Predict the structure of Phosphotriesterase.
Amino acid sequence: MTIQTVSGTIDKEQLGRTYIHEHLNIDLSGPKKDSDANLDNIDSIVEEIEYLKSIGVDSIVEVTNIGMGRNISKLEEVWKKTKMNIVASTGYYKEPFYPVEVYDLDYSELAKIMISEINKGIKYTETKAHVIGEVGTSKDTITHAELKVLKAAAFTHRETGHPIFTHTSLGTMALEQLELFKKEKVNISKVLIGHLDLNCDKEYHLRIADCGCYLGFDTIGKTKYEKDENRIKYIKYLIERGHIDQIVLSQDMTRKSHLKKGGGIGYSYLMEKFIPKAISMGISKEEIEHIMIENPKRLLDV
Ligand SMILES: [Zn+2]
């Protein structure tokens, strides 16, 4: 089957090595009251993505959605200049980042917007969203509005078969998200629970993996929350327990200061620093390739 990207549909075999949860243009600076949270440095981003492509990354899933400063024309510009495949997303993030329609509309009306962005295209562009995400929950709680958005995401998934990518706040509420999706008859093998590497816990990871979803080790390099050595240990543990098919990787870059020019680690960190470290700690090259190529392909296929 095909994958919808900003450059039109591509065959799933063209995905290649994939970063599963990234932002190439995102603005959360209003609610965060921090101008660093407006990632809009297009020239630096193009430069980094061009380099990322040259070292073997073929695709990026861009999970910025409605209310997060999503800007499809910027994504098109990055694709045109770099030829990196970019998969776009629909949905609403979490409180307090919702646009007003989340409060005004009911879940089926919100789902209608998401379904239209998948089937017809994102307003004023020819790009069709492929991923329902990132849809999220707050730390240790799911608010009333977040519950409505998760229900709308489930409805959209039932109608379209497209995958749902979630955001957890520091890894919390993952099992509750899965419980809700099960109740809403979502195919759990099309769900990626995000940010489970911010708060690593073996037993918690196993309980989540036993549900059959994907586990996002998608904040790699954010060592203020968790050391990368630990991320690697927890990935190894999941592999040993038979869950290699459920692991996906990314960095979740969201800030100017994450870019190389802003003094940060840059988009190439995963490829150039994390993977060599993982290999030196005993994860095989074949396992890494499986995680970076086969798992995204299976998850994104609809
Ligand atoms: Zn997130």
About this structure: Residues 2-300 form a domain with the TIM Barrel fold (CATH 3.20.20.140).
